[in-house]
Amino acid sequence: MSPSNFQVLPRRQWLAAAAVWAVTGFHRTALAQATTVQVWKDPNCGCCHLWVEHLQASGFKVEVRDVGNTAARKRLGMPESLGSCHTATVGGYVIEGHVPAADIHRLLKERPTALGLAVPGMPVGSPGMDGPEYKGRKDAYDVLLVKKDGSTQSYQRYPGQRPVAQRGGLQRVSDGGGAVALPWVNAEVRRIDKAARKVSLRHDEIPNLDMPPMSMVFQVQHPDQLDALQVGQKVRFQAVQDKGAYWVVKIEALSL
Length: 256
Description:
Oligomer: single chain
Distance between the termini: 71 Å
Number of helices: 6
Mean pLDDT: 82
CATH class of the largest domain: Alpha Beta
């Protein structure tokens, strides 16, 4: 209703119409705020970008900040132990990692008393980690409801489609003598975050993790190794998976 229409109405009807307009406008604003997701991520993380696209396809408006997520996670109070490659906020909640859009919609509908939701690490099969290069592989994972005191409970369970024993067998490769031999994988350094102990790599296939070539953010087990690296440098590295997170255990420059 336009202001000119208000002028020809009796005062009582004008006030009623104005009240309806104000309430409707408030709800529209609140709805827009509730469905706008702010995301902090690494600019070189391909799976983060795919998660953003997943949210957009599910009706969310997404605002991206390509500055990494370590500082945002700490500022928002999400426990480091639940960390993943991106952190987000929506409707007053914190979202950590590859949380499916359906669970975020449910969170906003139910409005539980909580800090938010988290999917620690980067489980294959979760939104953003489910591209055709994974050939249908789906690891089991839980979406966790994170309480304000940092405790958690399962909010939604997603069963895997491969036996746990089979996935575990891909973690490490024995050299036949009892020691563990991890394959070396070639990569290019895309970003270095020494403060967060992370490195972004565009890498070849990682056989022991059954991970296809892609760009990925890894945590670094020995951060002093980052001192010798530069963006754009060709390297080789070894990686493992621990509790959903991907760790570089050794990384070195390739000889030219």
